[in-house]
Amino acid sequence: MKTWDLYRFKWLLVMEALFAGVYISLTRGLFVIFLVSIGYAVEAISFVVLVSSFVSLVIAGAIYKRPIFLMRHVKLKLVLFHALERITWFFIPLIQHTLVVSVIYSFYMVFSSVLSIFLSFTIYGLLDETSIKDVTAKRSAAMGISNIVGYGLGIFLLAFLPYETKFISIFSLGTLLGLFSTFLIIFVDVSRLENAELPLRTMQPEKVFSASFFFVILLLSGNLFGIVWTPYIMNELKGADFIAASMSLSGTVASIVASLIWSKRSFKALRLGLALNAFGPLLAWFIPFPEYHVGISAFTSFTFTAANFIGTFLFAKYNEWFGAIKSSILLVIIGNLAQLASAPIGMFLGSNFVLAFTVLFLTKASATFLAMVFIPEVAVLREDVARTYSRILYRNSIVGYRVAVEVSRETVLGVFRILALSLILTTLYLIYRTLLLLIT
Amino acid sequence: MVEDIIRVIREIFAQIAAETVRLIPKIFIVLVVIVLTALVIKLLNFSFRKLLKMVRLDEAFERLAGITLPFSLSNVIIWVADLGIALIAIYGIVNLFLGTLYTQLFTEGLYYGARVLSIIALTLVIFTLFNTAIEKVKVETRLKGYMFFIILLLVTAMLVDITALSDPVKNALITGLSLGVGISIGVFAVWFFFHEYLDKRLLEK
Predict the structure, then answer these.
(1) Is A187 near chain B, with CB under 8 Å?
(2) C-alpha to C-alpha distance for B84 and A428, rounded to whole angstroms
(3) ipTM of the complex, rounded to two decimals
């Protein structure tokens, strides 16, 4: 790519993230409030998230199996899914029925999942490692800035719009702003991604495995922290609601600054951020003054950005031999997997904060341990030693996985067979019962 | 004279036209019913085939019962389902066109058909079991012939039940056949358990 083209490409992606940030704040950011306003309970909200995450995971898995979907008509699909994801929000508040909302939200999650794959594919497929890091950091910062603006706008509109039309207006505005980012995407040149080639074989699967494992655990810990922390501040420490809002604001501001600071740092520097991030749950647990948690939120966001960059940058590094297609799909699968795992764990932990913070600390410490020992680029050990550990972890996991699959495959198949036969017999019974009722 | 003929013809045509017009909605409904039935059968066949492919019913039956059936159980299930749907559709059409009297006739026909089908199914099951028993146990030809004879008598008794003969004749025939089967089995049992003793006594004489 020529310098000017590269510059234009990068800035289009950053601007897209800027508008997407406002759109996300006005739609997905207010979705839970919308659900509560139409009578959803907490369990139902978790269920909606769980189902939609599962659907997205299945879709991403299917694309990973058949990546040819990504390689044809890239521009058309990118723009189409970008627009569809945004347009879905226009329909969500129109019919305020729980089942309809769940179905439309599942559609949104699927579109969002596919779009994330296409956006990652665009970034990973057209840029080199340095540019990927640069764009990722700038997009992250841009999204953080526009998130603040979006949340401000959202709060203002929620406060002043009439109840009946509140969510229709806000979501429509979000959709419009989101479609503006779609308009920007039209100008992104992705012609070089058309018929992109898949690498014949993965050269160092153990590296991808260790990085993916680490990233899932890290994102899981992040999601869990989000689930546990706010109820802890408001219910346990009796903090005011503005403190929870301030925590969110300080976290976003810290992540903007962190994106710009950490983007140029080496893996060795980022691992310091990762290690410090593990202390976040302990600080949140042991400091009983709600006001201090605003600062802790800034600290955890700042360090979590570094930890998050480790995962993203590792994939940018592996991109050369792992391929942009697989990297982009795997990143989305990792995100969905972490979200899917965090919902039931969050429900299980409930308001048992002692257990919750212990689990949180252990999760973050596990992620740190994984990175320090099994990922050669980040490890505190010698690179060859870390690579050996990584191989051992990979092989043992593969063996364990195969044994588990072999054992459970037959059982699952048996259950499905019995279910299928029951379905057939029930259908037969229904047919002949109908006939009998007709003739008697 | 000619005018009268034309008037009569006109009246006939007018009546036919009026009846046809009256029938049109019914014909339309029947067409819809037929199309829907075809669609449901197609859909059912497709989904049943997929499900039965996953269930692998024939394979499972062979493994569990140790018997190879001369027909596919999966196909029988699909056929039974199709028949059920078709019967529901036919009942609907008969009810629409011909009224209650004919639906009763249809019901009686259905019961009769069910009896015929049950006899066919029973015969198939008996012959399959017979075949399997012969394969498993090495039976000599004479004994094979005897077993076949008994089965034929039993099937004949069942067939008599569905014939249009009068009840006393049916009773007489079935009683005769039952007696015949009973005596045959009795004679066979005597021969089977005591044939060595009987042979010895006959040789002595």
Answers:
(1) no
(2) 8
(3) 0.73
